[in-house]
Design brief:
118 residues; 434 Repressor (Amino-terminal Domain)
Length: 118
């Protein structure tokens, strides 16, 4: 039934009680969001990774790495360059650690590209 917690939901809630796990989990979630939004923006603009690489003066492999959800080395400057080169804007919000859980629970993100997740 919708709304019922699965075993995985309960397991994840338990794991998120561990501050170290929570930190790693949130970092991975951010990396996935960044990568998937970059890829979705590129596809929405009808561009290939090679074309974006040429716009940024880099190699296609660098663009593939930025769009890889397992890559965690995104820098703010390169993400901003990528986004601006494709005619979009970047919104960054800094939230104090003690307010993160509340912020994440309350935010209703409206990404530029609604269907950026597979």
């Amino acid at each position: 039934m919708p709304g019922e917690k699965t075993n995985f939901d309960r397991y994840l809630e338990h794991k998120l009680q561990d501050p170290e796990f929570r930190t790693r989990f949130e970092a991975a979630d951010q990396a996935w969001d960044i990568a998937l939004q970059l890829s979705a923006l590129r596809r929405a603009r009808g561009l290939t990774q090679q074309q974006v690489a040429e716009l940024l003066g880099t190699k296609q492999q660098a663009i593939a790495r930025l769009e890889d959800p397992t890559y965690t080395g995104h820098s703010l400057s390169i993400v901003r360059k990528y986004v601006e080169a494709l005619g979009a804007s970047l919104d960054l919000i800094i939230v104090p650690t003690e307010d993160t859980a509340e912020y994440l629970a309350e935010r209703k993100p409206k990404p530029l590209l609604e269907n950026s997740r597979p």
